[in-house]
Amino acid sequence: MAGIDDVARAAGVSTATVSRALSGRGVVSSATRERVLAAAGRLGYVVSAAASTLATGRARAVGVVVPFLDRWFFSTVLAGISDALVRRGYDITLYSVSADPTERRRVFDDHLRRRRIDAVITVALELDAEESASLRGLGVPIVAIAGPNPLLTTLTVDDLAVGRLATAHLLELGHRRLAHIGADAVASAASTVPTLRRRGFEQTLADSGIEAHGVEPADFTIEGGSTAAARLLASDDAPTALFAASDEMAIGAILAARALGLRVPDDVSIIGVDGHELGRWFGLTSIDQFARGQGERAAEVVLRALDGARPARGLGTLPFELVDRGSTAPPGR
Hints:
Layout: H1 4-11, H2 15-23, H3 30-43, H4 49-56, E1 61-66, H5 72-87, E2 91-96, H6 101-114, E3 119-123, H7 129-136, E4 142-145, E5 153-157, H8 159-172, E6 178-182, H9 193-207, E7 215-217, H10 222-233, E8 241-244, H11 247-259, E9 269-274, E10 285-288, H12 291-306, E11 314-318, E12 321-323
Parallel strand pairs: 1-2, 1-3, 3-4, 4-5, 5-11, 6-7, 6-8, 8-9, 9-10
Antiparallel strand pairs: 10-12
Helix pairs in contact: 1-2, 1-3, 2-3, 5-12, 8-9, 10-11
């Protein structure tokens, strides 16, 4: 079995350079790192996790906490996190939490403390004060994607602006009977992602002196979007445009419209949010929030913190972009 000395000889560098190149710690030029990685690959050399932990004090693992594993946004963000971490030799320890208080306490107060992890990334979690304190008590870098928290380094899309952009697009096309599928307009009062997108919708209509033609709550799934859209589109005074707070709900809305014999966008325009890979197959106009890039950005921030960069507090803004694929058009086209 090849050892670190064999890799050093094959790459023409010292064992210390091999260690820095494979661990991601210390200064090593890109060319040297590539040479070391190539030599290690040819020789089948794998760093011992136990030895690396003893030598560096690192577990070479990052804990990632998500509320869902079976939804496109979260799986895509996870793919971006994984890509960035694996390139630097880190593993992911994945935790899924629900809204159940007992399960959440078990994850934040027990599981995260028992497992050796070097950092934590949370994805779209609304954390209460106790959970935030528990995370900070781990003494490791923490990065939150969405779920705004002033105590943590948080990377977030401006979801109020997202809602405004989607609504403005429909207004510019000439629509005046607009409805929204997403957060409940009455019950949802917190600054959550769905609520901010709905508020962006309502504010933009109010700025134009227009009342919403309906707000239907849905659960961010294709089925939920289809059910909500069917209720809106079956009315005698149906909206001419729908803004769904996620692409999956927007795809459900397209399917519901088709089932009612309506043509998209001739009879009803539909826009979503996410940049879902299915969007191009449905010709869905969407606000792309570059989910994979969000994961990569979060991993990069964590890795910089592990390399000694001072952790930030507050928000880092993530990009978004309107992508017109043809599911929106002027009313009655």
